[in-house]
Amino acid sequence: MSTMADVARSAGVSVATVSHVLNGTRPVLPHTRQAVLDAVEALGYTPNSLARSLVTSRTRSIGLAVSAISNPYFTEILQGVEAAALEAGYSLLIADPHDDPGHELKVVQLLHERRVDGMIVAPSAEPGGLVAYLRRQAVPTVLLDRVLEPVGPGQGPFDQVCAENCGPMAELVTHLASLGHRRIGLVAGLPGLSTTSERIAGYRQGLAAAGLDADDELVVSGSSEATGAERATAALLALSDAPTALVTANNAMTIGALRALRERGLSVPGDIALACFDDFAWADLFAPRITAIAQPSREMGARAVAVLLDRLAAPDREARTVRLPCAFVHRASCGCPEPRPADTAGMESTSHSEKGITP
Predict the structure, then answer these.
(1) Beta bridge partners of 323
(2) pTM over the 0.85 mark
């Protein structure tokens, strides 16, 4: 098995230079760097990651805590994180918090004990314990999908990466209103999540833009999962003045809403129009195909890795929140004729933005 000394001899440089090239600890002239890389390839040299971590205090690993098993939405985000981490030479340790605050804290502690260089976390609806731990341990962390607002000095800040929520949701509502709907129901997510509050705000913004009054009885929590959404949809349909259109606030809740409609023999869009926030792989397999807001899931995961690597390279930099644009995917479940592909190209609902957060 080749050693670092063998690589140094083959490249005609010192062992220290080989170390700087492989670990990125000091700039090296381009031709020298290439000579080292050529020697590494020719000799089949594999760096000893454990030994390197003891010297540099870095493990080149990232901890990822997202509910990827219990929430299919996070699966695509995970794929983006994994690809970006691998490209940057980092391994990934994954844990599922199951959106439970107690379990969330436990898995984050376990990841930290594995000496990960930093973490990417999708916080639960009650993240107090998580935030306190990350702040106390000074763990470089990027919050993913769900954002937190700093509530006082010393209580953050964290870098954050998420999608736009308010504007795209408003777009769904104004589109339904433009089709003549005046009673538009919302199956909202789990209370306490920023995605839930922002999408409710967008729903109300859309109603206001369409000149419609907000009616609180038309907003029911589906708890961000299918069973809860089925109950929420049933409650909306049982109203004396039931909605003629329905918006679901994530993909799992769309499934629950569809179950409730099927059980009552209601057709989409004949009896009730349907649109959902958060497109999913099989949304265009339903008949009719479902109008949706598509989030840039993989890009969100990749951007979270990039932001975390920036934090590791510059620990004192100002924290930032990165919001990525969503796309309006116009299909037929809203009651419109199925649009041609050319009609839906480039229909982005929001623009990308970054803003600094101060504690």
Answers:
(1) 162, 353
(2) no
